[in-house]
């Protein structure tokens, strides 16, 4: 079942007699229990999309379906968690008090059950030992983790995280990635925007990629990487030693294999070389630009 389906979403901003088309009719969906990365350069339309999804801005055209129901009703809101890119924290509250505040306004748990939920979440995000410290003493990474705990306090089925790793050091980004993976393993769908492609590559089952308000890819991460991989490595044995070579296409690969066979050399291995997500992103973005120029 899809937890989110977006159809033909369009949004235009009007500034000083000019129109900026932020979204140009994008379509995508998010499946239950998956981690989906929402990628694109600055200005691609990621934040505008998230604002439209949460009715913080209103699309000019298009439809949004949550759990196969159209619109963002109160019932749907109770099933969604959200962490904005720049969350506001009441710094005088402790981590435990902060989560209690949000738990009391977003759940119907008894005080006892809510306290247990808070303890479980603090442990889950690695802040159990800092639960009685004021938020003003938390590092950037700790604030991001308690923010994620806030988004999960009501046990949502779908979580939207806007740039959750921005500004974090490598340790902080690793911790947030682990929380995201663990959250999805519990059955919650996670949809997070990012321009940090190595983090998305390590975390995401699926990708939704925008460029200048257009959807340029939607699907499994591995499919994108395999589709954009354009080189093959061939390894053979010659004079009691192993040699290897990269070829750029399947046609060149077949030609090189024929040449090696004619020399009666033993081919040990043939494999496609794997692009990084960053390399694949640049490649599809360039290909789309080339398509537009050719039209």
Strand and helix layout:
Layout: E1 2-15, E2 18-31, E3 35-39, H1 46-53, E4 61-66, E5 69-70, H2 74-77, E6 80-83, H3 95-106, H4 111-124, H5 140-152, E7 158-162, H6 170-185, E8 189-194, H7 197-203, E9 206-211, E10 214-220, H8 221-228, E11 232-238, E12 241-247, H9 250-262, E13 266-272, H10 277-294
Parallel strand pairs: 3-8, 3-9, 6-7, 7-8
Antiparallel strand pairs: 1-2, 1-4, 4-5, 9-10, 11-12, 11-13
Helix pairs in contact: 3-4, 5-6, 8-10
Characterise this structure:
It contains ten helices and 13 strands. It is α/β, with parallel strands linked by helices and 295 residues long. The strands form three sheets. The protein has a six-stranded mixed sheet, sandwiched between helices. A four-stranded antiparallel sheet has the order 2-1-4-5, covered by helices on one side. The longest helix has 18 residues, at 277-294. It is globular and about 80 Å long. The two termini are 37 Å apart.
Oligomer: single chain
β-strand number: 13
**Portion in helices:** 25-40%
Strand content: 25-35%
The strands making up the biggest β-sheet line up spatially as 6-7-8-3-9-10
Order of helices and strands: EEEHEEHEHHHEHEHEEHEEHEH
SS class? alpha/beta
Our measurement of the CA-to-CA distance between the termini, rounded to an integer number of angstroms, reads 37 Å
Round the mean pLDDT to the nearest integer and report it. 89
| Biggest sheet architecture | 6 strands, mixed
Tell me the Rg in angstroms.
23 Å
Shape: globular
Number of helical elements: 10
The low-confidence parts are 289-295
């Amino acid at each position: 079942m899809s937890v989110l389906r977006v159809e033909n979403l369009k949004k235009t901003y009007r500034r000083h007699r000019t129109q900026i088309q932020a979204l140009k009719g994008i379509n995508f969906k998010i499946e239950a229990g998956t981690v989906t990365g929402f990628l694109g350069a600055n200005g691609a339309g990621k934040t505008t999309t998230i604002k439209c999804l949460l009715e913080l801005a209103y699309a000019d055209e298009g439809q949004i379906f949550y759990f196969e129901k159209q619109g963002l009703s109160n019932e749907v809101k109770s099933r969604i968690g959200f962490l904005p890119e720049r969350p506001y924290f009441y710094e005088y509250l402790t981590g435990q008090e902060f989560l209690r505040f949000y738990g009391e306004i977003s759940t119907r748990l008894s005080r006892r059950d809510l306290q247990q939920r808070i303890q479980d979440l603090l442990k889950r995000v690695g802040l159990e030992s800092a639960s009685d410290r004021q938020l003003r003493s938390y590092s950037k990474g700790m604030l991001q983790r308690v923010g994620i705990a806030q988004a999960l306090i009501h046990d949502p089925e779908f979580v939207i995280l806007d740039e959750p790793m921005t500004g974090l050091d490598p340790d902080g980004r690793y911790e947030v990635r682990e929380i995201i993976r663990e959250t999805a393993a519990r059955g919650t769908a996670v949809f997070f925007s990012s321009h940090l492609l190595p983090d998305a590559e390590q975390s995401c089952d699926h990708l939704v990629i925008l460029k200048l308000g257009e959807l340029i890819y939607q699907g499994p991460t591995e499919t994108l990487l395999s589709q954009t991989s354009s080189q093959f490595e061939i390894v053979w044995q010659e004079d009691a030693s192993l040699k290897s070579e990269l070829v750029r296409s399947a046609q060149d690969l077949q030609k090189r294999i024929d040449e090696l066979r004619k020399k009666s050399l033993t081919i040990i291995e043939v494999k496609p070389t794997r692009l990084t997500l960053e390399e694949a992103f640049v490649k599809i973005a360039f290909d789309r630009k080339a398509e537009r120029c050719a039209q």
